[in-house]
Design brief:
Blueprint (H helix, E strand, L loop, with lengths): L8 H6 L7 E13 L3 E7 L7 E6 L6 H4 L7 E10 L7 E12 L14 H6 L8 H22 L4 E2 L5 E2 L11 E2 L19 E3 L4 H11 L1 E9 L12 E10 L3 H22 L1 H10 L4 H10 L3 E4 H9 L17 H12 L3 E7 L15 E9 L3 E8 L4 H11 L7 H5 L8 E7 H9 L20
Parallel strand pairs: 3-5, 6-10, 12-13
Antiparallel strand pairs: 1-2, 1-4, 2-3, 4-5, 7-9, 8-9, 10-11, 11-16, 13-14, 14-15, 15-16
Helix pairs in contact: 4-6, 4-7, 6-8
Length: 459
């Protein structure tokens, strides 16, 4: 640690220097308790949940009357002497020798020392990272993004950055945000547009990822995706991030094994390396969270066939809102019953009906199902969706025709089945959905810095 320059508060608290060491910290005021002779300022620099107490002695500062009026939100540079505080919330405090106001904060600062609703904080998304909850959310988000890259790097996966602007829909649902340079009132043909073809923002990097898997064997994408879905639920956003690995020479069971290892390692990383932030979520957001995550990380993930899952649900002593029969897509209430009441832990449901799944999923030999999987976890339901991909060109063409997709638009995708095609599989995990599960936050708008939802694109 460089004691002569700025020191992060997290480092000071984790490795307290000896008494009488002089250090300098920067940060923003969370609170200022001013008295006649002393002021106690709580300073936070975002590196940790905790703040550092600064002690301002009136005898040492001729301008004490003005300094003790420092308000919440003010940016400070503080230099002082370290003093151990064995009985305090933090192991040390700073007896100030110099205090510089870097940026003043007027009394209208909207984050005063009280609890604010998440709805209110979304209206000031540019300031909410300064709160305890969102400081913890975005430290966890940053750490988990790095852990994801580490997971794949240590297994030899190639990181691929797939296009954000694309001419394919991947899922075929027509929920693309259109990209054009033509004026809204233009009647010009698409041939005069920038790309001379209809284009939009990507809904998935999967199709491009499959191409790279046919050259590098194991790859993954991790980037922004977009859905023009007019939904205002707590689980939907128009812009979110996806993690999508793809493996050549792999089947559905290889896919499930990778997904299980992935979830286990990420949960273990969060609980081991982010103890303060995770304890905060456990205490303030979702009591019992850490125990639930620990149990999932240590419990073997079961695997059951979709048809068996339907039979279990049909026999369940529960009146589901959505009726159950073979061929329906599972709803959250069904998924949670399976993993919470039947299995008592995480479970993969395998081999879904062909009619309810995407064109790229491999047909099973029964002619009715495809090699698809969903990972269901307690408290949430579906966390991961994946499949073995259809590697046979003739079958792929049949599925494109059934889905009403022009094969000429995916000529490059079809080519990957013509020259050295291999069985391959992959899955997708929505990063924000995973962060909701990990932190206990109940709204996707609260785990992404600046959420994009219908009629909301501020900041």
């Amino acid at each position: 640690m460089n004691r002569s320059g700025r020191v992060r508060i997290a480092e000071l608290c984790a490795n307290p220097p000896a008494d009488n060491t002089v250090v300098t910290v920067n940060g923003w005021v969370r609170a200022n308790r001013a008295g006649k002779h002393h002021s106690f300022i709580t300073l936070n620099d975002g590196s940790t949940l905790a703040g550092l107490q600064l002690v301002l002695n009136a005898e040492q500062f001729p301008d004490y009357p003005s300094l003790c009026r420092i308000t919440t939100g003010t940016a400070l540079r503080a230099t002082g002497v370290v003093v151990a505080t064995p009985d305090g919330q933090q192991p040390i405090e700073l007896q100030l020798t110099e205090l510089i106001v870097v940026g003043e904060s007027d009394p209208t600062y909207p984050l005063q020392k009280k609890r604010h609703s998440f709805e209110y904080l979304r209206e000031i998304a540019h300031l909410r990272p300064r709160t305890n909850t969102f400081g913890a959310v975005f430290r966890v988000r940053s750490a988990m993004a790095q852990a994801i890259h580490h997971f794949f790097a240590t297994r030899g996966f190639l990181y691929v950055t797939t296009p954000i602007i694309t001419a394919n829909d991947c899922e075929g649902a027509g929920e693309l945000f259109r990209v054009t340079t033509l004026a809204p009132t233009s009647s010009a043909p698409v041939s005069e547009d920038f790309f001379a073809a209809p284009t939009g923002l990507t809904v998935s990097g999967q199709l491009e990822g499959e191409l790279f898997a046919q050259a590098f064997s194991d790859i993954y994408t991790f980037g922004p995706t977009f859905r023009a879905e007019n939904s205002n639920t707590a689980r939907h956003a128009a812009e979110f991030w996806m993690i999508e690995p793809e493996m050549a020479f792999a089947d559905l069971h290889d896919d499930a094994s990778l997904a299980e290892a992935f979830v286990r390692e990420l949960l273990d990383h969060a609980l081991t390396h982010l103890p303060d932030d995770m304890a905060f979520f456990d205490r303030m957001v979702a009591p019992g969270l850490c125990d639930r995550l620990l149990k999932v990380s240590q419990t073997p993930f079961e695997r059951i066939d979709y048809s068996d899952a339907i039979r279990l649900l049909e026999r369940a002593p529960v009146n589901f809102t959505y009726p159950v029969s073979w061929g329906v897509d599972l709803q959250t209430e069904h998924e949670r019953y399976l993993c919470e009441q039947v299995v008592g832990g995480p479970v993969f449901v395998l081999n879904y009906p062909r009619a309810i799944k995407a064109f790229y999923m491999r047909d099973n030999d029964d002619g009715k199902t495809v090699a698809a999987m969903d990972l269901l976890v307690p408290g949430v339901g579906e966390l991961i969706g994946g499949s073995q991909r259809e590697e046979r060109l003739d079958r792929l063409d049949q599925k494109l025709a059934s889905a009403g997709i022009d094969p000429r638009a995916l000529w490059w995708y079809r080519d990957s089945r013509r020259w050295g095609s291999t069985p391959h599989a992959g899955f997708g995990l929505g990063f924000e959905r995973f962060l909701m599960y990990l932190t206990g936050m109940e709204n996707i708008r609260d785990v992404i810095p600046f959420p994009r939802t219908p009629r909301h694109a501020e900041f």
